[in-house]
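User: I've been trying to design a sequence by hand for this structure and keep getting stuck. Would you show me what you'd pick, starting by listing the structure so we're on the same page?

Assistant: Good idea, let's start from the same input. This is the structure you sent:
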């Protein structure tokens, strides 16, 4: 527990110090209020016993004034703390987001990482663990200070009463610890069920999935699964609340038994030692506040330990090693790319994707990479983009190893449009390039999408999709692909990559885009990957990948002379299908 909590506090304190200042101030003020409350009635009774009306009036006025001051200070501190808490939670969310962005790309295909990321996000967003942890910590800190003050008051009268109070506290702690273990187990059992619920819910609100559900009449299956989920969860919650109620009842019974013993001792002591009524009131109030404070401490401890368990996935996620090998060389332009004996297999797999691959691209060359599915075409692009590192061999950029370049300057020189591209629920203009210096309209005209955009009510300011605004527009797959390609063209880089981004376009539209792309990239190096062989005609050379090895690397004309080559078979087969 401590191994999780201390690093969490350090991490949070580094992120937002004002929250902890507000937390400490709030705890001190609440402690002062609790301790002073124990004295209030005793002070008033002392004034009555003195029979000095004038002095009594002054004392009572001061006491009421202090009570009001503490009351308003508590309200103020809680208000400030609540505001700081909201900021703190936002900071925690930002920490998680930053970490996700810093994680090496290879983790995105690791099931263990994906599971941990899901758990980390669930714990802080769905379970409210961050808020509950800080709240329980604040309460715990405040109550411990109060407990010390109350103990001093009680010890000034008697030594037996504290023993009874501590025995009761230990028994209560045991009950709460059992309750906490039950709650933690419930949370762990609930995680996989909640993931299923999230999937079912996503299935009925995601347009593409709803289409499949309607077309294939899968609603009954989904409804059955959803109903089973609801029944399962209801049973689990029923058992959970029954256990929690039993534990709570046990702690309340213990508290009343403890109070009965304490009040009996206080009463006996008052009678035998003839204590003034004001002293009796002080001792009784202090004992009552002590038991209440102990109960609060025990509950806070339970919440504290439970929430420590909840944030465990978050801390494990934040502890993931994110250091990526980063060089110091700045890259101004990519002139040559060379793979020298590169071998690669994806993490946690044994299958070799690229096997001793070697080739070299030159300045301003247009290269087409072709091959069957799973040959390793996209893997070459991922290695070039430094999403992965080769297991063996070297990748040279301008005759310098790729890892010796400073990563940010390197990535600036690459513009890639992937087959699984993503657009965001922002305006079309912001999706392409938010920089005002880029001529978005011209780029959209080059890819053949400007006419469609200019017919929209908000034109280039139109939001893509209706995720958070009904004024957003729903575009076809082909139109979205054109916007993704426009985004690639808008980036001022020296290497352009198209990795199967035109699958939703018809062959003529694809050929037009490739031709425009070829003209726009005439002074830059460009790499094309497509199952449609029309892109190869525009290229200077074609790299043919077959089963993870380079089977050919030549011009279109020369490769077409090799009647038995994979390239010839692919090209002629597709030409027959399209009647080219």
């Amino acid at each position: 527990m401590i191994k999780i909590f201390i690093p969490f506090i350090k991490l949070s304190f580094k992120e937002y110090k004002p929250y902890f200042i507000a937390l400490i101030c709030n705890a001190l003020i609440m402690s002062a209020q609790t301790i002073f409350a124990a004295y209030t009635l005793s002070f008033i009774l002392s004034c009555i016993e003195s029979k000095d009306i004038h002095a009594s009036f002054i004392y009572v006025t001061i006491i009421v004034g202090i009570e009001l001051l503490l009351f308003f200070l508590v309200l103020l501190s809680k208000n400030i703390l609540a505001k700081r808490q909201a900021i703190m939670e936002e900071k925690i969310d930002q920490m998680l987001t930053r970490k996700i962005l810093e994680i090496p790309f290879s983790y995105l295909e690791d099931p263990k990482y994906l599971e941990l990321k899901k758990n980390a996000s669930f714990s802080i967003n769905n379970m409210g663990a961050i808020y509950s942890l800080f709240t329980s910590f604040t309460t715990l800190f405040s109550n411990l200070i109060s407990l010390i003050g109350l103990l001093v008051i009680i010890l000034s009268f008697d030594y037996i009463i504290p023993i009874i109070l501590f025995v009761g506290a230990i028994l209560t702690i045991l009950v709460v610890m059992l309750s906490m273990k039950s709650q933690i187990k419930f949370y762990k059992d609930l995680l996989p069920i909640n993931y299923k619920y999230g999937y079912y819910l996503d299935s009925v609100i995601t347009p593409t999935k709803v289409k499949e559900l309607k077309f294939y009449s899968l609603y009954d299956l989904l409804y059955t699964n959803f109903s089973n989920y609801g029944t399962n969860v209801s049973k689990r919650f029923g058992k959970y609340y029954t256990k929690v109620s039993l534990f709570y009842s046990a702690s309340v019974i213990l508290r009343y038994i403890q109070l009965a013993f304490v009040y009996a001792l206080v009463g006996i002591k008052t009678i035998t030692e003839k204590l003034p009524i004001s002293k009796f009131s002080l001792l009784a109030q202090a004992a009552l506040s002590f038991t209440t404070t102990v109960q609060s401490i025990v509950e806070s401890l339970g919440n504290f330990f439970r929430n420590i368990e909840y944030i465990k996935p978050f801390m494990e996620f934040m502890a993931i090693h994110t250091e990526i090998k980063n060089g110091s060389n700045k890259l101004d332009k990519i002139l040559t790319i060379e793979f020298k004996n590169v071998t690669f297999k994806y993490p946690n797999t044994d299958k070799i994707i690229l096997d001793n691959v070697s080739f070299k691209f030159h300045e301003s060359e247009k290269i087409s990479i072709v091959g069957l599915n799973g040959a390793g075409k996209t893997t070459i692009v991922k290695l070039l983009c430094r999403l992965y590192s080769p297991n063996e061999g070297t990748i040279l950029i301008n005759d310098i190893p790729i890892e010796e370049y400073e990563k940010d300057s390197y990535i600036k020189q690459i513009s890639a449009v992937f087959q699984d591209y993503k657009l965001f629920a922002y305006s079309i203009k912001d999706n392409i390039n938010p920089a005002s210096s880029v001529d978005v309209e011209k780029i959209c005209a080059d890819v053949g999408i400007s006419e469609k955009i200019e017919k929209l009510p908000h034109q280039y300011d139109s939001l893509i999709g209706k995720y958070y605004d009904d004024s957003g527009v729903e575009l076809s797959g082909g139109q979205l692909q054109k916007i993704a390609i426009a985004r690639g063209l808008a980036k001022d880089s020296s290497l352009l990559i198209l990795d199967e981004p035109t699958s939703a376009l018809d062959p003529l539209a694809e050929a037009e885009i490739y031709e425009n792309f070829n003209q726009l990239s005439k002074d830059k190096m460009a790499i094309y990957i497509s199952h449609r062989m029309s892109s190869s005609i525009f290229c200077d050379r074609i790299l043919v990948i077959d089963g993870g090895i380079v089977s050919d690397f030549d011009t279109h004309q020369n490769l077409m002379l090799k009647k038995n080559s994979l390239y010839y078979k692919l090209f002629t087969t597709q030409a027959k299908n399209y009647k080219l």
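That's my pick for every position. To get oriented when you compare it with your attempt: The first strand starts at residue 337 and ends at 344. The chain has 19 helices and ten strands.
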